[in-house]
Amino acid sequence: MALNCSEILSADIQKDCSAKPIGGIEVNAVLIPFDNIDRASSTYDGTNNLIISDIATLSGTSGYFVEGIKQSQGASFELVKKEDSFDAFKHSFAGVVLTPSADNKKSLSEVASGSKYVVVVEKKWKGGTTETEAFEVLGWEAGLEIQEMNWNTKESDGIIKFVLANADGFEEPQMTRNFLDTDYATSKTVFNNKFATA
Predict the structure, then answer these.
(1) Environment class of residue 25 by beta-carbon count within 10 Å: exposed (0-12), middle (13-18) or buried (19+)?
(2) What are the tens digits of pLDDT across the range 134-155?
(3) What is the pTM of this model?
(4) Is the separation of the CB atoms in 188 and 134 below 8 Å?
(5) 68 phi, psi to nearest 5 deg
(6) How many CB atoms lie within 10 A of CB 115?
(7) What 3-state DSSP class applies to 188?
């Protein structure tokens, strides 16, 4: 990185016509409590620090599924320009509670109690035949907090909708990161196990 922190483009930005983009994510996302991540044991790709090769959680902890359907959930990031600091990125996860039961409302109230989360999603677009681009990690460095929640019996069949995002002024220094542990199959197994550590 340059001494003044102003990096310049160092490689071509290419297209791959054999792996054209596809919108959307798979139905489930994993919410990991920010404080449950073992940052000392988590690792990055040696050539690209936007690729996390191991998301380690503290002993006895894991993430939790938010189960969706179709394209009811989504993820995004946007650039946040700053006048007197480094530009940043706001990450956002739009989730749903498809069954607004008392148990699910209790879980959602825990999410809304002020804790921060890292969210991992699996994209429909996985990067072609190697599927090395499947998983995106939101909130890795600053964490996502509840920003919106609504329930209306006259809308969307009465499901609960919520948004986790960076708080204004506490955005991420990077775009969303990728998660790739060896290959797609290994990464998918870790995802399905909710990044649990025994």
Answers:
(1) buried
(2) 999 999 999 999 999 999 999 9
(3) 0.94
(4) yes
(5) -115, -165
(6) 16
(7) helix
